[in-house]
Amino acid sequence: MAENRAPKSGLAAEAQKKLLSKYDNQLASEVMEWVRRTTGGDFSASGEIDNVHEVLKDGVVLCKLMNVIKPGAIPEKKISSSKMAFKCMENIGFFLQEAKDMGVLAEETFQTVDLWEKQNILAVVICLQAVARKASKYGIEGIGPKESEGNRRNFSEEVLKAGQNVIGLQYGSNKGASQSGMNFGNTRHM
């Protein structure tokens, strides 16, 4: 667990410092409040890194959240309340798999150790924000911007062929203009 790790040094310390500088307590508080409200949980919705880690590290709250969004997504018998590391990380893994199945992009998810070992809590917050966006598709009130639904257009063959005859402005049409008579910078004096 994170308490048993040696302090980072060198490049690892610089990378960790950069990650911590990007962490947004306000965003984390908003996400944790959404998780608390959605699950009906009785925990602090503070956005402090230590609180986010403490509330979510065993994965039980994450599994409950996923079961509220998608009932039965993670069977209750699979969710372990044990505090053993591999069981907690298994719970987190169940949540991550269901998040990917919901359509959360791989870039918006986190690795299990990011949460379990408190390596990158920002990634956890970003993942939960993405899950909250996707939750509106399942009838759960989400947070953040509404997901776009696409605007597919179907053109007839006639319209597509007519479009091939149009010369776009990116081809450099300048109506016969030339550079004759233009003086670009200083001229050479002899």
Automatic annotation (TrEMBL):
Residues 25-136 form the Calponin-homology (CH) domain. InterPro entries: Calponin-like, Calponin_repeat, CH_dom, CH_dom_sf, SM22_calponin. One of its GO terms (cellular component) is actin cytoskeleton. It comes from the Eukaryota. One of its GO terms (molecular function) is actin filament binding. Belongs to the calponin family. This is Transgelin. It comes from Galendromus occidentalis.
